[in-house]
Amino acid sequence: MATDDWVQLSGWWPTKGTYPRDQFLGPEACKACHASKFNSQSQTPMAQALARPQDSPPLRSQEQLTFRSDPFLYQISRQAQASVYSVSEGTQSLSAPLDWAFGFGESGQTFVLNHEGKFYESRVSFFRALDGLDFTPGQAESRPSTVDAAVGRVMPPSEGPKCFGCHSTAATANGHFDTSRMILGVTCEACHGPGEKHVAAMKTKQTKPGMAAIFDPGKLNPTNQVDFCGACHRTYADVILAQIDGIRNVRFQPYRLEKSQCWIKSDNGVTCLACHNPHQARMKDDSAYDDVCTGCHRAGGARSAKTCPVAKTQCVSCHMPKYQMPGMHYEFTDHFIRIVKKGETYPD
Questions:
Q1: Which of 71, 161, 276, 288 pairs with 282 at a CA distance of 20 to 30 A?
Q2: C-beta separation of 179 from 164 below 8 A
Q3: 52: alpha, beta or left, given left = phi > 0 and alpha = psi -120 to 50?
Q4: Exposed/middle/buried for 111, CB within 10 Å: 0-12, 13-18, 19+?
């Protein structure tokens, strides 16, 4: 289903904003019983998907970042506990402190500032491959006529809750969007739901009601489990409804996965969790995923699928190629698992 439909149903779902803010205790409340998971999850890109500028590694590491696109000069300068974003053209200039850094920084970071009571997505972003600034994807197409317009893109009111909803925890509660009380990053309660009732019950050793008071996405059936991750990474239905075609959809892993024969022929058994542990950082060694592939693609056995005649290791390096999306300066792994034909164009 589409994510908008999922969040309308009763019960917990990522980005659902109807629960009271006071029911969210923050990840430290989980640490007492789940120290190992807390320690590893807190180091993941998800847990660090949103930061204050003073905590952003790219902004902390450089005194000043500069980018010019005539006639405008863009600068981000580190000043005390703030990062100041400025745009100038000749004698005209505008400066404002950045409020938020979106993204862990592995590929890059985009910045959001509150200017004259409105959220702006900065017109320039930081890209790791450049170790510098370039246009934020989608913003190079228009040419601003004034310094004010060159600051960036005004985010419509409906966009804020969705962006912060996938980069933080409890940004929307009681149906009210409020960045002042949100928990930075995708933490425990972003996926498991508010923990107040669970923690209270477990402290008094009421195990059964305590377990019933917290959500376990690992118990969802495979299709719903992939939709669960798709609440932020886009479900198949989300991509279809939004008509996101071509190379632009390479970032939406649930959509790409569900096009795969590995998904279809395994009775939907190859879910996101087959390869990724959300409590740990993503494994970057291609061979780390071989056991998942050979679990089905092996010689002999009831669930055997065809074995690869070319190689027995680093399966994903061939069957999940990487593509660079224009303007992103980063190669995304295509989760449409397949036999890649020589010279083929990106298969939508």
A1: 161
A2: yes
A3: beta
A4: buried
Tokens of 287: 């061979």
pLDDT (mean) for 233-259 = 97
- β-pairing, 100-102 vs 50-51, is antiparallel
Ranges of each domain in the chain: 3-49+166-215, 50-160, 219-333
Do residues 64 and 76 touch, judged by C-beta distance below 8 A?
yes
Ramachandran class of 282: left when φ > 0, alpha when ψ lies in -120 to 50, beta otherwise: beta
- DSSP labels for 186-237? S-HHHHH---HHHHHHHHTT-HHHHHHTS--GGGS-HHHHHHHHHHHHT-HH
Q: What is the pLDDT of residues 22-62, one digit of tens each?
A: 999 999 999 999 999 999 999 999 999 999 999 999 999 89
The phi, psi pair for 113, rounded to 5°, reads -130, 155
Model pLDDT for residues 321-347, shown as the tens digit of each residue: 999 999 999 999 999 999 999 989 999
Q: CA angle at residue 292 from 256 to 305, to 5 degrees?
A: 85
- pLDDT of 300: 66
**DSSP-assigned letter for residue 139:** -
Q: Three-class SS of residue 105?
A: coil
Name which of 96-110, 178-192, 302-316 the model is least confident about. Answer: 302-316
Note if the pTM is more than 0.85.
yes
- Cα pseudo-dihedral 279, 284, 288, 289, rounded to 10: 80
Distance CA 291, CA 293 (A): 5
